[in-house]
Design brief:
Elements (H helix, E strand, L loop, with lengths): L2 H21 L18 H16 L22 E4 L9 E6 L6 E2 L14 E3 L4 E4 L13 E3 L4 E5 L12 E3 L4 E4 L12 E3 L4 E5 L11 E3 L4 E4 L14 E3 L4 E5 L12 E3 L4 E4 L13 E3 L4 E6 L1 H4 L6 E3 L4 E5 L1 H9 L2 E2 L14 H8 L30
Length: 389
């Protein structure tokens, strides 16, 4: 071989090596492909690439959770749990995801949550997930607990939830959802409904009482209008009702007194007005009543102060003008907070001029049934009746 040929061959070799070095960053990684892994069940082989793809979208993992998301043993990934699926008790499937408190950040759950066909529980409280919720989650036939609270999800209420017949627990609180909540939500057989601390703005739906929920939490939104009297239809299910910090107006319906299973009723910091209905004295199991920060006036019903299980009655920052001996005893005990009202002779009340200004405008609530009406029996009364103090 002559010198010219050798120089040509050397130049070609050098060129090839240079091209190879330049192309290295663009060559595929050598991580194991799914077909090279052995899975305990084909259902796990299906979700493996879905999890790996989601892992690649995570932008922050301060607790190093995803370090365990390696290999074919999906059931031992941190936050992932397997069970036998309902349609095949001999199979092994990814049944639940629990990311609560992992502090993971990702721009979306699309392509992940909606692609887990056997998922029954999805809990992702206190992370930094964002984006919208895919309509495709309606295909998740086993999902019965859905908790994405304390994240940064946005957009309108995820309407796909309405067609999820298996769902019994919904928690989307502390997000950035806007718009309105479909009335159909309150007809679903949900045991718990937490939609507080978003930016929903609408009138409270008239069918609110059709809810099957035990816990109904709508606080810290912009719900408007009166509390519908239909709420009494939920008397056999509701134990906690939270309307705190909204824009509610109007008078309290006496039907609230029919909620005999309720232990917590909180309608503080709204624009509700009128006297407190005596019917609230029928709430036998109530422990906490909060009507602070509204426009209530008149007397504090003694029958409410006589409730045996009452541990906290918050009526501060209203315009009440009369309180009886039973209620005064609750003030001494610290059970009743009546500060910043208009009760003569009671300490820590509003200035007289401020009270006079409030009452200089007409105040009216419909008198039927009368506010002294009791829809229940009391030990000291033999029958249902009206009560005049």
């Amino acid at each position: 071989m002559n010198n010219k040929s050798m120089m040509t061959t050397s130049s070609e070799t050098t060129l090839l090596l240079t091209l190879l070095v330049l192309c290295l960053p663009f060559l595929p990684t050598t991580s194991p492909r799914p077909q090279n892994l052995v899975f305990a069940d084909q259902r796990l082989a299906v979700v493996y690439p879905i999890i790996q793809k989601f892992k690649s979208t995570i932008t922050s993992d301060p607790l190093k959770v995803t370090l365990s998301w390696v290999g074919s043993d999906v059931c031992n990934y941190k936050g992932f749990y397997c069970e036998n699926p309902p349609d095949n008790t001999t199979a092994i499937a990814l049944a639940s995801v629990d990311f609560n408190g992992f502090q993971l950040s990702a721009p979306t759950l699309d392509g992940f949550l909606d692609q887990l066909p056997d998922i029954a529980l999805f809990h992702a409280n206190s992370n930094n997930f964002s984006g919208n919720i895919s309509p495709a989650i309606s295909k998740l036939r086993y999902l019965y607990e859905f908790d994405i609270s304390n994240n940064r999800f946005s957009g309108e209420f995820p309407s796909a939830i309405l067609s999820m017949s298996s769902l019994t627990f919904l928690d989307i609180r502390f997000n950035l959802f806007t718009g309105s909540v479909p009335p159909q939500l309150f007809t679903k057989k949900l045991e718990a409904l937490f939609i507080n601390n978003n930016d929903f703005m609408q009138k409270l739906p008239d069918n609110l009482g059709t809810t099957h929920a035990t816990y109904l939490t709508l606080a810290n939104n912009k719900f408007m209008g009166p509390i519908p009297s239909s709420i009494a239809k939920a008397l056999s299910t509701l134990t906690e009702v939270i309307f705190l910090n909204n824009l509610l107006t109007g008078c309290l319906p006496y039907e609230i007194g029919l909620l005999k299973e309720v232990t917590v009723f909180d309608a503080g910091n709204n624009r509700l007005t009128g006297p407190i209905p005596f019917a609230l004295g029928c709430m036998e199991k109530v422990e906490q009543l909060n009507f602070a920060g509204n426009l209530f006036y008149g007397m504090v019903p003694e029958v409410v102060c006589r409730l045996e299980n009452l541990a906290n009655l918050s009526l501060s920052n209203n315009y009440f003008t009369w309180v009886g001996p039973i209620c005064r005893r609750l003030i001494v005990r610290g059970t009743l907070d009546l500060r910043n009202n208009c009760v003569p002779g009671l300490p820590f009340q509003r200035p007289v001029a401020e009270c006079a200004f409030f009452f200089s405008y007409p105040r009216f609530c419909p008198p039927t049934p009368p506010f002294g009406f009791f829809p229940c029996k009391f030990p000291w009364f033999g029958t249902n009746r009206s009560f005049n103090p």
